[in-house]
Amino acid sequence: MKSHQSTSAALLGAGSIGVSFAILFATRGFPVAVFDPDPTAHPRAGADLARRLDQLQAFGQLDEDPDLIIERIRFTTSLPDTVTGAGFVQECAPERAEIKVPLLRDAASLTDGSVPLASSTSAIVPSTLSADLPADVARRVLVGHPGNPPYLLPVIEVVPGPATAPAIVETTMSVYRTAGLRPVPVRREVEGFVFNRLQGALLREAYCLLRDGVATVDDIDEVVRSGLGRRWAFMGPFETSDLNTRGGLASHAEKMGPAYERMGAERGQHDPWTPGLVAEATAQRRKLLDLDDWDARVLWRDEQLLRLRALFD
């Protein structure tokens, strides 16, 4: 396993996300230091780390012995010891700006000006994190919001703030790719970013369906795990709709758009799929898939579903 000695990772927080990032980076050969000011957190984090690595090994997902991976990871109560010389900082503190901001400020004072300061926050926008920071620190702050756990879910949202330097964004994207992640650039900061806004939309409707007596909790989960979720395991909502109707996304919007608009209005939401919006979505999809290749892609979709059925059923 190649060791990325020039890109050691400093993780600020030894909770679940911190441990998960430690596994992610260490399995890719990065030296990792994990900071937590509470020394009692370290034994728990160490036990969690060992358990997760054992699980990965049991499923044949490790290229080397777990002990070798653990050797790359050290826990410390000293922030200077953690971040000095680090090439990348990932803040994994609790979801409170009053905890995160001082950590980012202190980490900035101990690292080179080219080192990104990425926060794992699930919803706090980077401009909030950097609002009270000096300009030379704010330019280094951005959000790197992972799927949980990041060593199993490769997507990570990269969210710069208005003050974030483009070079910091580029470095962050490169580090994440080297660690085996698939970074998704979020082009405008919004609370919850993309991941939790999509998740939140489904959760809001799920709660409404439960409240209105339409279905039980388990029945709603069954629709997702045996229906929507199987397709979403390898496709997103736009490709799903594109392949659901011959003629692609434009045809789907023409047929289903009015019904979705009525469903949205029922929940007090007025966000119709306007002709211009549909045209933009369609243009982007056609760059990804020419309609001449639509039938072949539908066959590909069905092959993936067959593979999933063989795995789960």
Mean pLDDT: 96
CATH homologous superfamily caption of the largest domain: NAD(P)-binding Rossmann-like Domain
Distance between the termini: 36 Å
What radius of gyration results from the CA coordinates? Answer: 22 Å
List the helices and strands and how they pair.
Layout lengths: L8 E4 L3 H12 L4 E4 L5 H18 L7 H6 L1 E4 L2 H5 L4 E4 L5 H13 L7 E3 L6 H5 L4 H4 L2 E6 L8 E6 L5 H13 L3 E4 L9 H17 L5 H16 L4 H8 L3 H19 L8 H14 L5 H19 L1
Parallel strand pairs: 1-2, 1-4, 2-3, 4-5, 5-6, 7-8
Antiparallel strand pairs: 6-7
Description:
The protein is built from 14 helices and eight strands. With 313 residues, it is of the alpha/beta class. It has two domains: 5-185, Rossmann fold; 195-312, N-(1-d-carboxylethyl)-l-norvaline Dehydrogenase, domain 2 (Orthogonal Bundle), CATH 1.10.1040.10. It has an eight-stranded mixed β-sheet with strand order 3-2-1-4-5-6-7-8, with helices on both faces. α1 (16-27) crosses α2. It is globular. Mean pLDDT is 96; it is low at 1-5.
Would you summarize the structure shown here?
The chain has 313 residues and is of the alpha/beta class. 54% of the residues lie in helices and 11% in strands.
Relevant terms:
313 residues, alpha/beta, Rossmann fold, N-(1-d-carboxylethyl)-l-norvaline Dehydrogenase, domain 2, 2 domains, eight-stranded mixed β-sheet, 14 helices, 11% strand, disordered N terminus
